[in-house]
Amino acid sequence: MKIILLFLLLILSVTNAASNQRRTPTVSPILSSTVQPPTETRSRFAMLDDVRLLANGLLQLGQSLREFVHKTKAQINDIFQKLNIFDRSFYQLSVVTSEIKEEEEKLKKTTVYLKENNEEIRNLSMEINSKINNILEERSQLHSKVGGLEEKLQGLSQSIMPLEQIQEISGLKEVIETQEKTITDLLKSVKEQHEQLNYQNGKIKSLEDKLSYDNFQDTGEKSLDLSPETPDPFGYLTMNSTNGTIDINDYPVGCSHVFKSGQRKSGIYPIKPNQSEPFNVYCEMSSDGASTVIQRREDGSVDFDQSWGKYEHGFGKLENEFWLGLQKIYSIAQHGEYILHIELEDWKEEMRFIEYTFTLGGPATDYTLHLAPLSGDLPDAMSNHTGMKFSTKDRDNDKHDESNCARNYTGGWWFDACGDTNLNGRYAWIRPKARPQRRKGIYWRPAKGSPFTLKSTKITIRPST
Ligand SMILES: *[C@@H]1O[C@H](CO)[C@@H](O)[C@H](O)[C@H]1NC(C)=O
Ligand SMILES: *[C@@H]1O[C@H](CO)[C@@H](O)[C@H](O)[C@H]1NC(C)=O
Ligand SMILES: *[C@@H]1O[C@H](CO)[C@@H](O)[C@H](O)[C@H]1NC(C)=O
Ligand SMILES: *[C@@H]1O[C@H](CO)[C@@H](O)[C@H](O)[C@H]1NC(C)=O
Ligand SMILES: *[C@@H]1O[C@H](CO)[C@@H](O)[C@H](O)[C@H]1NC(C)=O
Ligand SMILES: *[C@@H]1O[C@H](CO)[C@@H](O)[C@H](O)[C@H]1NC(C)=O
Ligand SMILES: [Ca+2]
């Protein structure tokens, strides 16, 4: 604002000066020639005044410009500071988000556990109720019996009664009394249990409410698979020779056979390796052959913290996240020499790969791994895992005497002690900041250089010839 005003002032003074200059020549001829010299000096003075005015204006302009620059600098500094603060709080927010996510996961697990417990308690309570009903019935029967006996006793007491009969009756009375006492005790404990059950129900309800609220909060993400016991989504084919369809011997032995039969589209195909039941695999087709995908992580939609049985038979969905299963991988890799291809994407969305020659031992060796690096732009972190058996939280085959690596770092893997890779670790939706969290995630640490924390992974195998 000030600047504009100053400009106006400046322009005004300049035009003034110009008009003054224009005016002097028109005025001078009118005046007589004798007074010419003083007019000349006066006009020169006038011009000097104008120049002074102009210089003054310029000086003021300069000063206010400087002021303006100072102010702008201060404003920019301010903005930078604000940006810094924003940056910091954004980072804090992302940390908090990851923590919330972890807690949510825990909460979900607790809820499932509580639900199971609740059902058990309900079943127990139902059982106790039915038992009590039986007891009550028995009691009323006993009552009526006692009533009858008492009547009889009265009738008998009129006449003479044998001593042992009286004793028998009083004994019976005692029995009945103690039984009544136990029944009241039982009723009391049942009541207590009912109360506890109600309390737990309330707790579960509030947990569920909280959970649905949390779910609502991050609708952007896929919800976790809540039921850990979902049926194997890609179990063996049951398409059994229902006449006119596929004969069991017509299945391709592997993806390479699918490729040879003319298929060029990546996708899910049934195969039947030698000495195996048929099963579905995801075949990835390229221009010169096919690979079988044995593992894929991309969005955290599948929980990879699974037991030995699950790792042996496979879990997840072939279309997105899954572990094909050691048994199936083994039956495929039986067919000759295979190459293991590992493709990793980090949080900068950079893709890298590494290839190894690949041999997998059978179930008797707990699927011992044998690898030798071949090529790729990903630093090697796996050749140390050669000769390692597969471990899960419920089967510790690792080389760490005091720890269960699969339990510490989650997921099944060819752990040594505990090793530098685990591609079946916990999926993180953002890059974890803290080291222990990173180490629990999908992890790849080469001998040299810093570890990779990963956004997505894909492991495939293909015949080496
Ligand atoms: C509870 O009882 C129901 C039906 O009787 C049964 O399906 C369920 O498995 C039982 N749950 C537990 C935890 O025993
Ligand atoms: C094939 O189906 C028949 C009945 O249609 C069944 O008895 C048999 O067990 C099935 N075989 C396999 C391998 O599923
Ligand atoms: C399939 O059809 C053939 C005749 O075409 C028949 O001999 C055979 O028993 C049928 N198999 C089954 C499982 O129905
Ligand atoms: C195993 O599969 C291969 C194809 O990979 C086939 O050539 C071979 O005959 C099969 N062997 C047996 C014993 O079935
Ligand atoms: C595994 O966890 C246990 C218990 O928290 C701890 O004592 C042990 O040092 C951990 N081992 C490794 C290799 O991190
Ligand atoms: C492999 O193991 C050796 C000794 O067991 C160790 O010195 C080396 O750092 C390991 N290499 C990798 C890549 O972990
Ligand atoms: Ca161990």
From TrEMBL:
<dbReference type="GO" id="GO:0072377">
    <property type="term" value="P:blood coagulation, common pathway"/>
</dbReference>
<keyword id="KW-1015">Disulfide bond</keyword>
<feature type="domain" description="Fibrinogen C-terminal">
    <location>
        <begin position="246"/>
        <end position="465"/>
    </location>
</feature>
<dbReference type="InterPro" id="IPR037579">
    <property type="entry name" value="FIB_ANG-like"/>
</dbReference>
<dbReference type="InterPro" id="IPR036056">
    <property type="entry name" value="Fibrinogen-like_C"/>
</dbReference>
<dbReference type="GO" id="GO:0042632">
    <property type="term" value="P:cholesterol homeostasis"/>
</dbReference>
<keyword id="KW-0037">Angiogenesis</keyword>
<dbReference type="GO" id="GO:0005201">
    <property type="term" value="F:extracellular matrix structural constituent"/>
</dbReference>
<dbReference type="GO" id="GO:0090318">
    <property type="term" value="P:regulation of chylomicron remodeling"/>
</dbReference>
<dbReference type="GO" id="GO:0042730">
    <property type="term" value="P:fibrinolysis"/>
</dbReference>
<dbReference type="InterPro" id="IPR002181">
    <property type="entry name" value="Fibrinogen_a/b/g_C_dom"/>
</dbReference>
<dbReference type="GO" id="GO:0004859">
    <property type="term" value="F:phospholipase inhibitor activity"/>
</dbReference>
<keyword id="KW-0175">Coiled coil</keyword>
<dbReference type="GO" id="GO:0030027">
    <property type="term" value="C:lamellipodium"/>
</dbReference>
<keyword id="KW-0966">Cell projection</keyword>
<keyword id="KW-0732">Signal</keyword>
<dbReference type="GO" id="GO:0006629">
    <property type="term" value="P:lipid metabolic process"/>
</dbReference>
<feature type="coiled-coil region">
    <location>
        <begin position="100"/>
        <end position="134"/>
    </location>
</feature>
<keyword id="KW-0325">Glycoprotein</keyword>
<dbReference type="GO" id="GO:0070527">
    <property type="term" value="P:platelet aggregation"/>
</dbReference>
<keyword id="KW-0443">Lipid metabolism</keyword>
<comment type="subunit">
    <text>Interacts with ANGPTL8. Interacts with ITGB3.</text>
</comment>
<keyword id="KW-0358">Heparin-binding</keyword>
<keyword id="KW-0964">Secreted</keyword>
<dbReference type="GO" id="GO:0005577">
    <property type="term" value="C:fibrinogen complex"/>
</dbReference>
<dbReference type="GO" id="GO:0010903">
    <property type="term" value="P:negative regulation of very-low-density lipoprotein particle remodeling"/>
</dbReference>
<dbReference type="GO" id="GO:0001525">
    <property type="term" value="P:angiogenesis"/>
</dbReference>
<dbReference type="GO" id="GO:0008201">
    <property type="term" value="F:heparin binding"/>
</dbReference>
<dbReference type="InterPro" id="IPR014716">
    <property type="entry name" value="Fibrinogen_a/b/g_C_1"/>
</dbReference>
<dbReference type="GO" id="GO:0055091">
    <property type="term" value="P:phospholipid homeostasis"/>
</dbReference>
<dbReference type="GO" id="GO:0030674">
    <property type="term" value="F:protein-macromolecule adaptor activity"/>
</dbReference>
<dbReference type="GO" id="GO:0034116">
    <property type="term" value="P:positive regulation of heterotypic cell-cell adhesion"/>
</dbReference>
<protein>
    <recommendedName>
        <fullName>Angiopoietin-related protein 3</fullName>
    </recommendedName>
</protein>
<keyword id="KW-0130">Cell adhesion</keyword>
<dbReference type="GO" id="GO:0070328">
    <property type="term" value="P:triglyceride homeostasis"/>
</dbReference>
<dbReference type="Pfam" id="PF00147">
    <property type="entry name" value="Fibrinogen_C"/>
</dbReference>
<dbReference type="GO" id="GO:0009986">
    <property type="term" value="C:cell surface"/>
</dbReference>
<feature type="signal peptide">
    <location>
        <begin position="1"/>
        <end position="17"/>
    </location>
</feature>
